[in-house]
Amino acid sequence: MLAAFLAVILVLLGVMNSYPLILSRQMIFNSKEQAIRSQASLISTALAGLESFTAESISQAMSLLDLSSLGRIIITDAYGNWLYEAVDGSLQPQYSTIQWCIQGALQGNDCVWPRLKSGVFYTNVSMPVMPDKEVTGAVYLFEADEDQGAILMSLRSTLARISVAVSLAALFLSAFLSETITRRMRQVLEAINQVRSGEYSYRIKVRGRDEVSQLGNEFNSLAERLQQTEEVRRRFVSDASHELKTPLAAIRLLSDSILQNPDIDGDTAREFVSDIGAESERLARTTDKLLRLTRLDNKVEGERSAVSMSQVVDSAMRILRPLAEAQGISLTYLDRGDGCIWANADEIYQVVFNLAENAIKYNVKGGSVELLSQREGKMILLSVRDTGIGIPDADLPHIFERFYRVDKARSREAGGSGLGLSIVRDLVQEYGGEIEACRRAEGGMEFKVRFPIYDGG
User: Fold this and answer.
1) Are 202 and 191 in contact (CB under 8 A)?
2) CATH number for position 345
3) How far apart are CA 37 and CA 290, in angstroms?
4) What confidence category does residue 416 fall into, taking pLDDT thresholds of 50, 70 and 90?
5) pTM for this prediction
6) What is the enclosing helix (H) or strand (E) of 306?
7) Alpha helix stretches (DSSP H) within 49-145
């Protein structure tokens, strides 16, 4: 980029040093050519009116004309013989130049040869003398203008000095910008290498508001997200290992107790085997939830169709009603407006089942769970309300995090793994919905889930 910048500067300087000089030189050439042509035409006209074309008559005619500004005047007859010559000034043309111009005039042509040499403008003009369309002689004029040449040379020198100054400034600016940009880019590359090696806490010190600073801000934001992702991954691996380790340890302890005690009575053995079965079911549930989260993370979509919310809620209530009755909890459903969702039926069922099951498990004796569905514009709202102990305000922002449990002892006692609400949130977001949780003023919790209504389009 900086090389291109320098190249553009050099091209512009080249144009600045050439175009004004060429234009000025051409203007001076045109001005002098026009002036000397006028003088040559005046002389030719005056000589054409002479009765005899002799040296004496020519001298007499020339004495009547004011031609003091010319450096040299030569008048010849039709054969090229010099009949008149006037010289003024130290700068004179070469003889070959004079002869070339006179020969052209004797052939009936006007000859003009301007040139700039060593800071001096030289102008050679010749014109035929033709009284009756017959060449009787030639007029040759020469002028050397040092003043105009000095002005042009001064302009050239000034432009050259300006060009040198601009070139040095451009070179310095390019070097400064190059060092500044590359230094800051090296900082970004160093930061990338640090993060690639696992230093997710590394940050770039951002200064300014230019594009490199914006790149630094974006990098810091990306590094922060990577750090958060890494922390979540490590916590997930740790929590998953712990969740799988606990039932496995219990199964091993119970099985060892049976194997190491040959005199164990039948009732105790059946109790141990029952506990092993319960831990196995818990292990299976945890594994199934982990697999479901992996599928959601990998964006593996199930087969979709138009799913009726009321039918899904009815199916979930038939399964959960025995659990609610066993704990003395009233389970009701109020349908205020059905709607269809374009989704996988099993996954919508999983959302409803998990929310309703949690409301039952973490309720109080004699409590109630109420499910409500209704339309809200282009969305369908599912509300799950309970009269349980609720969730503290400090824990509400974290309840959808994986393996997060408000009361670990009670959650473990109820068979919870801290994955259910995470699965619910991911499923809701997968289908373009949203979920929120809030404490009820009269006690308990309310979960609200909204899905876009499928209109069949």
Assistant:
1) yes
2) 3.30.565.10
3) 102
4) low
5) 0.45
6) strand 305-308
7) 55-63, 95-106
